[in-house]
Design brief:
CATH topology of the largest domain: Glutaredoxin
Order of helices and strands: HHHHEEEHHEHEHEEHEEH
Distance between the termini: 52 Å
Strand order of the largest sheet: 5-4-3-6-7
CATH superfamily of the largest domain: Phenol hydroxylase, C-terminal dimerisation domain
Number of strands: 9
Length: about 325
Amino acid sequence: MGAFGLNASILDASNLAWKLGFCANNQASIPKLLPTYENERRRHAVRIIETSGVYLRFVCNSTLPSVNLKGVGTDPREDELNKPEKPDPAAGEENEDLAFLKRFYAQNGPFLLGVDAAYGNNVLNPPRPTGPHPVVVKNGVRAPNPRVCFSQTKTGYLYDALAGPSKMNIIVWGSDLQGPIRRHLVAFAKALTDPTSFYNRFGAAERFNIVLVIKDTPLEAAPKLAKGSDLAPFMIGTILYDDRAPDEDAHTCYGVDHAKGAAVVVRPDMWTGISVFPNQVDKLTEYFAGFLVETGSVPIRGNASEEVFVTATSRRA
């Protein structure tokens, strides 16, 4: 069944480290952010126990009941709701063993490969609202890592553009930067310079890594993002070029509507937070207000017992 203990320990450390860092640096609320560690990692530990137990009993042909940990500090994931517990004869599943294997690997395949450890809802991964979603990627799952282009001479993967444990990543999907999507992108670009927006209220470049993914080539994008353009604020971040075929490009990987675009929050541990349309800046403000501390007068320690207060602006300078 694999080295679940080692994999889980790595994910534990990845999940907790950035949260401790944010709280230790007065960037996030301790009572709001730190409880998400147990909320998220407990459900993974529970699934390891349940999955291993169910498969072990099948292999050993054991009739001993497996442990039932439902409700032990966890909420059901979306893909665990209404799943069949036994073979359905009406569906043609006549062989019980084959039916078990079919269900087991369909439900647990990615988990067994170590690429699936979806987290339940909390302040970092709120429930998705009803209605059209900006992307097909759900909240609280590992962010996909499609191949992208960094320049005319360099290719890589989306993760290569994401920041380390000190920043929240916001991936903005911009298609070709024109048509209906442009209005959405302009609204987001304005938020990057508005002192009252989420970006500047919660730390600007010190806390956020902005990544714009577009379908243009570098030469096509240059005049659209040039100084003086209403999209120029995006140049504070990283521009990636989605140059692969339409059926396998990064926009398709995330399920982005090219007419509306999307803004996806990716946490420092590479798990998704929320996704919104780029013009829904108010939703991002509400989201980050749920656990981040606004900048302003931030205490930092000087020599001896002296405590110095600096503003976010002076710190960046």
